[in-house]
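Weekly structure sync, notes
Attendees: PL (lead), two postdocs, one rotation student
Agenda item 3: pending single-chain targets
PL asked that the sequence for the first pending target be pasted directly into the notes so everyone works from the same version. It is reproduced below exactly as submitted, 100 residues in total.
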Amino acid sequence: MFWRLPGAVDFCGREPEWPQFLDRLIVDRAVSDVILFGDCRPLHRAAIRVAQSRGLRVYVVEEGYFRPDWITLEEGGVNGYSSLPRDPAWFREQTRLLPP
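Predicted structure, written out during the meeting:
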């Protein structure tokens, strides 16, 4: 939707057609990584499944994760899909390891 440079591809089909369209695009363009803004939208969930089935790296960008107005990038997913530890003690321990 926002990519206006040459080579952009617009998907104009219906939601059920998206996975097959994306899979063909991945093959045709030799895609190695997929970057998404958010990972909970239905088309993004489908894109993640397609990318993972092809063994691609998936990166997800999200806003306001730790602080408002900041953007975070995680491999695999954000929020509920994040691979960050859920234990607050882990974060406290990591902060103790940081230089002053």
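Discussion points:
- The chain has a mean pLDDT of 90.
- The first helix runs from residue 18 to 29.
Action: rotation student to compare against the earlier draft before next sync.
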